[in-house]
Amino acid sequence: MIPFEDFLFFDSEVHGIPADAMTLCRFSGRLDRERLEKAIHETAERSQIGERCAVCRRNGTLDWSEKEIPVGIRYFHGAPTPETLPDSAISITRESGLRFWIYDEPEEDRFQLWFQFHHLTTDALGSFLFLDEIFERYAGLVVSHADVPDGNGIAAALRPEFSGILRKTVWKQLRTALGSLLCCRRFAPAMPLELRENAANGKTQIPGLISSRNASDAGAETELPVLFHAFSRQETQEFLGAARAEGVSLNDLLLASVFRAAWRLQEKFPQKTKRKAVQIAIPVSLRKPPQNFPLRNLVSVVFLTENLRNWRSRYFHSGTVSRNAKNVSETEQSRRFLHEIRGQMLRSHAEKRAELLLLELKWLCALRFGGDHRWGMKWFLRRKTPLATLVFSNLGVLFRDSRLPRTEDGRLCVGNLTLDEIRLASPRTVDAALTIALGTYAGRMTFGINHDPKRLTDESVRLFEHFLIGEIQRVRRFGEVSGEVSGEVSGRTEGD
């Protein structure tokens, strides 16, 4: 039985800006190299959108290329070393297509697959659908090329329900987002990577090198380290229990924990951070059908700026909560309040939805700070402007509809292989000093933190990581105390 469904938080885009990211998959079992490469090429052939693929040019525009999807596969014998690591794992690069790095350790009966997807669809969710298709082909669940029905778009090979939505929304997103935000930017060239182990805390760091965006110092190099941290199955289950107890989703609690950690860092070490408003992509639930994820992504990015200080107080309260505040618990208040907001979202236009998402964020942060829901977030913005810039967005569910079987503890079985672990290295997104990739696999929650060293020091990021872990642990302990409330909350929380 799967502990609970896998889900992802991922830095994929800011206002639709595509970004690469590295997915690290660790398998146990003996690899059939030829079979894997065949599955990769067959999937790439079937995954073109109308026999064309989207290619991001150097000037930031997204063009359509009438050629096959470029696929690069590099095979290595043995575990990753500084000499064999990818040349660009965490940056948007000029090279389009798909890239794979395979590290085979036959003596240990295991191997690693490092995968980078260059936004061939409108967002990185397609990359995991693509990866799922490769695994299914390797396992023999997709017999041959001819067995897949014909049709345009990514639908034929991956998920039929996505192609129509992608075709209808792609140009709208590109015109409004990429044209205005990316036209003046240049992407960084590929640079070498190195892998080192942090002896102090045992975490693996994957520093990538990326040149400056400015043409004047195109030769400059900055280090982009990624810190990984994993929670045990028990800790993750307790965190899920805390979300149920508070009547909110895991997305909400994780987002609130990030805000709280940023605030603590600036409060305790103001000299290490710059006082600047938060830039954040609010997680949107993609798990309830119908999953119209491109439309939801259009309204999922909301910027918290200085202008929000002047919002009228009517945006900070709910009549339902105010009238019944004396008769219900705080947990019940939050559940009703969030339910009312989400109900309004379904009946509102995109612009109003963005405001309602922001309202939900304000309420959650006010709860985490122990303040009144009408004024807590307003006070937070005015008094405690948090750390630099945060980009934190939800991309959806990893392998949710996969035909691959699972082990008792929730790991995917890919033929004779077992997918033991998945790690995500968040990309360098535009204007982001700090990016976070967080998700679960087989009941364990893992996150990776990436930062821009020109804006944040390594020490500051380690402190942020310390505070973030502390906040998540604090929420988890709250779940232990309030576990008896979880039965009152419907099962929708786990599905959010």
What does this structure look like?
- This protein has 496 residues and is an alpha+beta fold.
- It is 34% helix and 19% strand.
- It is built from twelve helices and 20 strands.
- The protein has helices at 33-46, 125-138, 160-181, 233-246, 250-268, 293-298, 319-324, 330-346, 350-368, 376-383, 458-481, 492-495; strands at 8-9, 22-28, 53-56, 62-65, 71-77, 98-105, 110-117, 196-197, 204-205, 208-211, 221-224, 226-230, 279-281, 301-303, 390-391, 394-396, 413-414, 417-425, 434-441, 444-451.
- A hairpin with a 2-residue loop joins strand 17 and strand 18 (417-425).
Spell out the blueprint of helices and strands.
Layout: E1 8-9, E2 22-28, H1 33-46, E3 53-56, E4 62-65, E5 71-77, E6 98-105, E7 110-117, H2 125-138, H3 160-181, E8 196-197, E9 204-205, E10 208-211, E11 221-224, E12 226-230, H4 233-246, H5 250-268, E13 279-281, H6 293-298, E14 301-303, H7 319-324, H8 330-346, H9 350-368, H10 376-383, E15 390-391, E16 394-396, E17 413-414, E18 417-425, E19 434-441, E20 444-451, H11 458-481, H12 492-495
Parallel strand pairs: 5-6, 15-19
Antiparallel strand pairs: 1-16, 1-19, 2-7, 2-18, 3-4, 6-7, 8-9, 10-11, 12-20, 13-14, 17-18, 19-20
Helix pairs in contact: 1-2, 4-11, 5-9, 5-11, 8-9, 9-10
